Amino acid sequence: MSTWDRFVETFFNAKVMVKYLPDILSGMVVTIELAVLIVLSGLFAGLVLALLRALAIRPLNWLIIFVVDLFRSLPPLVIIVLIYFGLPAAGVSPSGFVSTWLSLAFVLMAFSEEIFWAGITSIPKGQWEASRSTGLSFGQTLINVVLPQALRLTIPPLTNRTIAITKGTALGTVVAVAEILGQASSAVSNSYNPSPLMMGAAAYLVLFLPVVVAARWIETKFAWKR
Amino acid sequence: MSKPIVEAREIHKHFGHLHVLKGVDLEVAERELVFVIGPSGSGKSTLLRCLNRLEEPSSGSVVVDGIDMLDPRTDINHARQRIGMVFQSFNLYPHMTALGNVTLALRKVAGKSRGEADVLGMAALERVGLADRAGHTPGQLSGGQQQRVAIARAIALEPRVMLFDEPTSALDPELVGSVLEVMRDLRQSGMTMIVVSHEMGFARNAADRVVFMDDGLIVEQGPPAAIFENPTQERTRAFIGQIQRH
After folding, report:
1. Who contacts A145 (Cβ-Cβ below 8 Å, separation ≥6)?
2. Class for the domain spanning A26-180
């Protein structure tokens, strides 16, 4: 057996791959479900926090900044483990799926709040003044004038951060979530062959490469000339 | 002088320990064009911004068109529709077309439908000579055109008073004329205007009154000819001399 054959036999073993393809595919479904939940809830919560922060109510802002800094400092894996193994002590036992979803959603909320907030504060004061001088309220100005401009500015950092955090779904393996990496790892243990890991890597590429390309397209589309 | 439409009394404004306005009284009659001049830092822009409460006066009273602007019970957003404002840096919304800029407040504040707002918005753009640029975004317009759209945005709401805060200071010299022309046209239509600007030529032949401010106070005021030719105060004379040398 040549070296090359041994390499293929080890990492791209056709028999193993065919056998475990259904597992990897079901892992992809779980990863997609997790990712969609994390992105929707994380970005929504981040935007809500940024809008609340714009109200400039001091004690509320301190609270928001504390929560945001907390979730930006803690490694996502630590949060997952805390929720999964720690909450049961408090009488709530979230599943591994829910633990992973909540943890990464909190992290995305924290980072996206900072990005949305940076976008809102980067809009020149003159935009607020022009709008307020024509009689629009604070809220109307925020929604109609400031936010549409702020969101465009936030799209590049936001898409990057969202992709980075969503890939963290692989951490769910630690709390027995049957997502791509989890399925691949158990297939490796069962088959004594690392080929499923290569399939797992390919599955991540299939999922995230289009997202990365789409992000690039969105960034170009939403850039506008001043 | 008929009954004043703008009445500011004893306006004080502090920024921290900076005393920017030190008790300013300003009355403006209906259809009057008042020019406010003075060195930078004299408080003229702050005074203007106190009139529509973009700046909260530290004390004093402001009544515009019979509405007490500083009364907490006043619906400030409603009151501001009657007071148009034009800024030095235009402050157009870059994500909207010219027509979108003009119609936003018509729809959101004046409660017009999109169709009604578009008709009124086009009429306002027509008045500033830019109906053919309705679909352009601010980035596609020259500075002078942007400032005229900003004027259209203000007059579309049919304000009773217009405030101009150095409307031509950010413009290239060759673009100033088109903006002044629009202001002259507004003046002829009987709009009450308060203008902070150093366009002395325009002040001379369009203003009813020139107010000279220095160090947070009105030093002297009167018809343009009197202020420019025969100022009674030494500070006024020094300032007029300075700007006329340029």
Report:
1. A123, A127, A128, A130, A131, A136, B93, B104
2. mainly alpha
